[in-house]
């Protein structure tokens, strides 16, 4: 065990941390629901589409892995996004059994809109903090993220 880890944490701190994390998680779920409604896409399709940001091509197998769902579920999501004109399916020149999936121009435009929406939402939250508070918040969130990943790795 890491000798720098403080194991003498009062129960009330753990309970408060748990409640705050649940509150943040609920807030994020509500924002995702609002985002889904605003862009008229079911949450699963929206999450699938957003994986294409910065990607030229993805495969159904790669999407299934990144979404942590069965390939059959991805096939349904991709079919819906293709019907909406947001994704295109192309044969892989290197392997005719594989379909390469890519954004259509409309899909790229929608991802840009979603990115702007998310940026503005995060900017609005940060606007409530003065510069010193923002720096402290960002530093603390960075630490939290790093330590949560460390604990996850220890639990694996």
Automatic annotation (TrEMBL):
Pfam families: MarR_2 (PF12802)
Signal peptide range: none
Residues of the HTH marR-type domain: 17-146
Gene Ontology terms describing biological process: response to stress
MF terms in GO: DNA-binding transcription factor activity
Stated name of the protein: Regulatory protein MarR
Taxon lineage: Bacteria, Pseudomonadati, Thermodesulfobacteriota, Desulfovibrionia, Desulfovibrionales
